[in-house]
Amino acid sequence: MSTVVLTLGDDVSTDVIYPGRYMATVLPSETPQFAFADLTDFNAKLKAKQVPPGSVLVAGKNFGCGSSREQAVSTLKGHELVIVAKGFARIFTQNSVNLGLRLVEVPDLEAKDGDEIEIGATEVVNATTGMRFRIVPLPPARQALIDAGGLIAYTRKRLMETVKK
Amino acid sequence: MGKTVVEKILARAAGKSTVSAGDVVEPAVDLAMSHENAALVMNQFHDIYKGTGLEPKLWAPSRIAIIFDHRVPAESPKTATNQKKVREFVGKHGIAKFHDIRGDLGGICHQILPENGYVRPGAVVLGTDSHTTSHGALGALAFGIGATEMASVWALGVALDVEVPATIKVVVNGTLPEMIGPKDIILHLVGLLTAEGANFQVLEFHGETIRTMSTSGRLVLCNMSVEAGATSGIVPADDETLRYLKEEAGVTDPVLPVLPDADATYVRTVEIDVSQLAPQIACPHTVDNVHPVGKVAGTKVHQIVIGSCTNGRFDDLEIAARILKGKKVAKDVRMLVFPASGRIYAQALLKGYVADFVQAGAVVMNPGCGPCLGVHEGALGDGETALSTTNRNFKGRMGNPTSDVYLCSPAVAAASALTGVITDPRGPAAGGAR
Question: ipTM strictly over 0.85?
Answer without folding.
Answer: yes
